[in-house]
Amino acid sequence: MAMGGGVSLGTFSGSALTEAIKLILIDNYYNLAKGHDKSYENVTVDSFSGASAGGMSLGIMLRVFSMPPAGITEEGSDIRDDLEEILRRQFGDAFENMKEVIRDDHWNQILLAQYAQNKQHECWVKEVNINRLLRHEKNSFDEHVLSLLFRQTVDGIAKEHIQLNDGDSAREFNELNLLSDRVLFACTLSNLSPLMLDARQQVKSRVDARGMIGLKDPLRSETHRDMRVFDIN
Q: How far is CA 101 from each of CA 33, 84, 89, 109, rounded to the nearest angstrom?
């Protein structure tokens, strides 16, 4: 999965990505149940690459796929019923036929893809709004930032929906097997504001601050290369 950036493009691309995965799962597993020769026994995702908003959308999706919420596999649970109702509204008369013929473990993967799409909607549509981006929200951080918009809004959403929390159980990891045993996740959040590389503090004792500004300046540099690759086993 590779996704570019584009700020508000994340609103579209996050849901487009999860919808594509959902349709791939439904098409493959339905044809598999019908005995089609070209169907795959299992569908997994093993590589993610995203920039900016694309990286955040992929991070949200990876978090959902790696540690699914409790209840998706439990028949009659509220979360399972809600997900199936969304699919029923989308596919109409075809829904019951799909649910009847698709294997239970494969059906759980489809429900997980729908949950991931719901999570994209929650992050990009419900939580990102102009009031929060313009710092009109109460208790926003009081700090000087060189930007019209308030970056902490996006940082807060990422912390809430991507990072692992106390109490998260490793036993839940990849419970529904929608991820491969090894996953590579590459992302960059770079924009027009570079990262500052500053080595001046490392030579502070050897450089007299008085009259040495010109000599110390070469110890600073700017970079736009902030790509990180996570190898998850």
A: 6, 15, 19, 14
At 150, the pLDDT band (50, 70, 90 cuts) reads confident
- Print burial letters for 141-179: b (CB count within 10 Å at least 16), e (below 16): eeeeeeeeebebbbebbbeebbeeeeeeeeeeebbbbbb
State the Cα–Cα distance between residues 207 and 144, nearest whole angstrom: 30
Q: Are 55 and 62 in contact (CB under 8 A)?
A: no
Assigned token pair, 74? 């439990």
Which residue, chain included where needed, has tokens 């998850």? Answer: 232
Residue 158 to residue 91: CA distance in whole angstroms: 32
- Cα-only R_g, the chain: 23
Which residues, at least 6 apart from 164, have a Cβ–Cβ distance to it below 8 Å?
Answer: 67
Cα–Cα distance between 192 and 103 in angstroms, integer? 48
pLDDT at 137 over 60: no
| Res. 112: pLDDT tops 90 | yes
pLDDT number for residue 79: 95
